[in-house]
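TASK: fixed-backbone design
INPUT:
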């Protein structure tokens, strides 16, 4: 198995940061977030980081990185995936292209 952790820019759907890992642990999500933070270090506005309720996005290391970068954290309620719709759409498109390639 391979685990992909992306950050999607909601305005245009582009992937601004991503990482891949062979285990579902803190390494890929923290690496991805650190790379994303580097892209906004000089910006005046602080982006909102939407995520699902996965344990990866509730770990202390993740929360510390969000806080230190002065990012706004948004986590969806149970059964409410709208906050994470951009990522869910990305994974849906990716799975369609990988598992059902068009010739």
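OUTPUT:
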């Amino acid at each position: 198995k391979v685990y992909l952790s992306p950050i999607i820019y909601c305005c245009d759907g582009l992937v601004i940061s991503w990482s891949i890992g062979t285990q579902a642990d803190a390494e890929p999500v923290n690496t991805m977030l650190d790379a994303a933070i580097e892209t906004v270090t000089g910006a005046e506005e602080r982006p909102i980081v939407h995520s699902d309720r996965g344990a990866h996005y509730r770990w202390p290391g993740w929360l510390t990185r969000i806080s230190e970068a002065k990012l706004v954290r948004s986590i969806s309620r149970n059964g409410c995936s709208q906050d994470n719709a951009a990522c869910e759409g990305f994974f849906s498109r990716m799975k369609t292209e990988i598992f059902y390639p068009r010739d």
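COMMENT: The two ends are 26 Å apart (CA to CA).
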